[in-house]
Amino acid sequence: MLPPGETVFLTLRLHGTVPAATARELQAELRQAQEAGTEHRRAQKQFFARFDAVLDRQPIGPRYFENERMAEALAGEIMMLEETGFIVHGFSILPNHAHLVLHLPAHSGLALAKAVDLLHLRTDQLCRRHVRPKLPPEAKFWQPGWFEYVVEDEDELSRILAYVGENTSKVGLPPRFQEWPYVAV
After folding, report:
1. What local confidence, expressed as pLDDT, does residue 178 receive?
2. When you count CB atoms within 10 A of the terminal residue's CB, does the N or C end of the chain come out lower?
3. Burial zone of 83 (CB within 10 Å; 0-12 exposed, 13-18 middle, 19+ buried)
């Protein structure tokens, strides 16, 4: 049994990594599935599978986390979440997005949205130092928002952690990504 509180699977992505038309199509498919009576969790899972496939297969937009310094900055900020009270079950950092599995203990007084916004802000600032010539100050680094899926039980947590841990090899990234320290489960 999961401890009291909420465990979530998050996907954060860089700005411009999913074409706007594709994002609208995916959102429309999710709404149609929900309106057709598809159970909410099942509709969310289907949406995520299609959404993540776009991120994994289509090399659209920036791939900043191929730069180890930038991936290291993000990994460090993810681990800093533990100092604020979150439990980091696992994460993987891919060239254009990241998956995180976090647990927020009950009665912690912390807000997931505030923590993710802070993660976005801090990594934006750290990573811009490495892409300054390529990214004008007015350009967005992160896509606002994130995909969030609440983990129901330990079996589901195990499946999600396996997915997160195997994601770099499943998408065919070179061994450097499969072996680097930016996958932790």
Report:
1. 58
2. N
3. exposed
